[in-house]
Amino acid sequence: MSFRYVSNNGDTIDFGLESPYFADADALRSYDVDYSMVRNAVTRFNHDPASVSLPISISARSEADGAALLDRLQQAFDHDVRDNRAGRFEVDDYYTKAFVTTFEFSCDDSLGLYEIELATKVLLPNPVWVLESKRAFNPSQEDREMRGLNYPYNFPFNFCSGVLTRNIVNPLSWPCAVRIVIYGEAHNPYVYIGDNRYEVDVDVPEGGLLVIDGLDKSRIELRNQYGKTENVFDRRISGTQGSGTYIFEPIPSGVSTVTWDGSFAFDVYLCGERSWLPCTT
Known about the structure:
By secondary structure, the protein is mostly beta strands. It has helices spanning about 65-85, 140-145, and strands at about 5, 10-15, 20, 35-40, 40-45, 50-60, 85-90, 95-105, 115-125, 130-135, 165-170, 175-185, 185, 190-195, 195-200, 205, 210-215, 220-225, 230, 255-260, 265-275.
């Protein structure tokens, strides 16, 4: 089993036998689902933010090494808090977003910075574990040829539907969030998944991309070929959940049809959420 923290500063802290850092992922396995009731009937379940304790140990080769390892860990945690962007604790292929809000240092005077113990508190804004699966949709030359109708005359134009169709499968027994990454060049791109149309009224430049993320409903990111980003949330085709035009519509359980006009490539990430980190990890 692998266990790591991925910071938005670009650093990844591995916890394990071959790493100077050690922490037990089991500390993050427990969960509590909040609920509301009216007249003895449950009206709502919700995963409220949670705070859990995570002890961390550091074993160094020298006191200078210990100081450097401690500073690296603190910078990774502190960067995400100061940037107000959650890092990720990852266990094998699952992850949960988190902030480390408490960082208490202690060491034995006889050992100095060779052996360091840390008491940390981890804030989980949405205490669920996410497993992502990716499906790429890229119109090939074969697709373009199959879209034309093969009449026995040499017309100076093609007859085609302008639509490509694929399938995607959500293996869970409940709906899951979806992230759609559209690659430019694309003009007012839209994708149908099932009966829902995901559409943003923008031009995605060549070499750029558009990100619609059902796990972050505060923004829709348009990025140009130079990495400059813009929040184009207000240019989405609006709609409420279940209306057929909701930009963050979850993907239902089972098989869904994916349809688009074939003029651009895109990736679909199914983000399956679980309350409990599977014991197989």
